Task: structure prediction
Amino acid sequence: NGDAFVAEWGDLVNNLGTGHIVKFVHFGSKHISVGTFATGLVHPIAVAVSPSGSLLIADWGTGIVWRVFR
Result:
């Protein structure tokens, strides 16, 4: 619906502990809001929507493709 999900791979260089999450980005008519959608991932690399409308999150670190139901 015009919004986005962003996979944040994670920090490997200086171990700040950043990333390793999926964020939700909502594009409003006058502002953009960003929030955390999923945590506990090792290295999320891709996010896609399946033909059934479920959200798919690929985690490179575990080899798992997570399916989030609508």
Q: What stands out?
A: The chain is about 0% helix and 50% strand. Residues 58 and 64 are 6 Å apart (CA to CA). The first strand starts at residue 4 and ends at 8. The two ends are 13 Å apart (CA to CA).
